[in-house]
Specification:
Layout: H1 3-12, H2 17-24, H3 28-35, H4 43-67
Helix pairs in contact: 2-3, 2-4
């Protein structure tokens, strides 16, 4: 995933840099630098960010299912 793809996905899901950074163990300022293309992320940190984004999506889906009564 490129920096622009990550930023677009994060924004579309309305997840803050701070929240995703906390989940991935990466500072908000470092995520800003990555998203703006100032500094690339090492592969292991990018993998952690991608995993954190997937975890957030899973949580959103779980919450939505609960709200819609699909999960009891």
């Amino acid at each position: 995933m490129t920096n622009k793809q990550f930023a677009a996905s994060r924004r579309a899901l309305r997840i803050s840099q701070g929240r995703i950074g906390c989940r991935a163990g990466i500072s908000q300022s470092r995520i800003t630098e990555f998203e703006l293309g100032y500094r690339p992320l090492p592969p292991e940190k990018l993998a952690r960010l991608e995993a954190a984004l997937r975890d957030e999506v899973a949580q959103i889906e779980k919450d939505a299912a609960r709200l819609l009564g699909a999960v009891k």
